[in-house]
Amino acid sequence: MNPADTSLGFAHFISQSDVVGKTLLAILVLMSVVSWAIIAIKGVTLLARKRRSEAFLSFFWNATSLDAVASEIVTHGANDPFSHLTSHAMSARAHHAKYGAAKLEEAGSAGDFVTRTIKKVLDEETTRLENGLAMLATVGATAPFVGLFGTVWGVYHALVAIGMSGAGTLDKVAGPVGEALIMTGLGLAVAIPAVMGYNWLTRSNRVILSKLDAFAYELHTFVSMGQPLSGEVVPLRHGVPQTRAA
Fold first, then answer.
1. Residues 147, 25: contact at Cβ < 8 Å?
2. Which of these, 192, 198, 190, lies nearest to 133 by C-alpha position?
3. I need a labelling partner for 87 at 20 to 30 A (CA). Which of 74, 117, 171, 245 fits?
């Protein structure tokens, strides 16, 4: 075996790469760091949010009155989507009862104002949950092509170098070309976790938003009317309560 062959590998490929190749590698490394950071941070946040939401919902449905719920929120704060929605809905009712329709955004009845407030909070929670997912989708879609471009660029320079040396045998071609293919593997290694993380977070967010949407209907009923409707419970559609006859 030629001693020079033992030097082939990732380190040798990097040492032989030009500015373009090293820049593409740096981009892939940055993509990987960003995607894993988003997955880790949002994953931990998601689990904590789920635990706090379950605790608040358990307290809410076992509370004796909305005053008790308000006291709990004041004491421990609104640290999950459900308590955040509840806090704003009750604040909207109290504000409208005290000041009435003083501004255009407060026009209509108290129920209308509470409905608009609930819709606004739902939109805010949706935006908060989806924050960062666009970056994961971008990494998952572009990383393979960045790696592929790095491979093409590496193969081109490897073939040029082989042609200039005049040694076109298979053992001289296989090493440099194989090294260039490393970039394609790196692109896939960056993209696959990003896509899997995106799918996991998207599904988890969809479950939370579905539960929050259904809870918003009941909350609107309690806050606006002081008691649940006797009709069938119908979740919100786009944040607006959909009434259905009993």
1. no
2. 198
3. 245
